[in-house]
Specification:
By secondary structure, the chain is α+β, with helices and mostly antiparallel strands. The protein folds into three domains: 94 residues; 39 residues, no CATH class; 139 residues, Butyryl-CoA Dehydrogenase, subunit A, domain 3. The protein has nine helices and six strands; from the N terminus they run E-E-E-H-E-H-E-H-E-H-H-H-H-H-H. The strands form two sheets. It has a four-stranded mixed β-sheet. Strands 5-6 form a two-stranded antiparallel sheet. Strand 1 and strand 2 form a beta hairpin. The longest helix has 76 residues. The chain starts with 6 loop residues before the first strand and ends with a helix. Its cofactor is a divalent metal cation. One of its GO terms (molecular function) is hydrolase activity. This is TIGR00255 family protein. Keywords: Endonuclease, Hydrolase, Nuclease.
Length: 294
Amino acid sequence: MLISMTGVGSAYDTFDWGTLRIDVYSVNSRYKDIIVRCPKELSMLENSLREELKNRYVRGKVIVTLYSTFAPELKMASINGKVLGNYFEELMSIHGKLKLLEEIQLELLLDLPGVLEQPEGRILDLYEQINKDAIALLDKALSDWNEMRKGEGEHISSFVNESLDKFEKLVDEIAGEWDVAFEEELLELKSKINLLVSNIALEDDPSHFEAVAHLADKWDIKEEITRSKFHIEKFRETLKSNVSEGKKLNFLLQEMLREINTIASKVKNAKIRWHVVESKCLLEQMREQIQNVE
């Protein structure tokens, strides 16, 4: 199973305290990166939403954005009657002592400290309920987000499986071509070794022995073909896993590419080298897709 790292999701609902919309958007990243963007009034939700997200995916950059409106009674500042009354009594006492004729205007008292209570305070009083509603809504948005990621993962899986079949066919063709070219390559190797051995007889240089050992070790590609087939088998097993394992698939692709490059460095056969070029193109296309997998 493959799950894409890219996806979008959204959820909206109405509550007693107001309305809330949560948008989830994700892009590729080698690591787990969570960004939560809240309105100033809901900034207290950031940590709880981040904690909720931590265990909901493996890797990628996820951006969660909240949009809210509040009920009218939460938008209005409220007057603290007790504080206002205390101010008024104090002023009336001073007014009487000074025998002032001008009446006290109540609206001028609203700017005094503690008379007006801002709506943010009442929103904080509702924190537990708002947090509970936000997490429930986030769950809906993540469900929508995951559906899209799974759909994208199915498309990637289809492409990768098709490319893997083509790559396996190319490896089989390389193996077939090598069976034909083996004798020719062996004769060329013997010719090089004979040349080096004759030089050894003329001059006592240990480097010639090293060159012979190097030639004997670096001319056959059967091991690379065998390992390539093994990597293909493991790649298919990983694709069928119950969890998305993008990192493991990426490492397997690196190993497959390494084997193909080694084959290219060892042989001169034109047909095999062309199969190598086609194989590298396929592996690069697969890697581009797998880099988008969680």
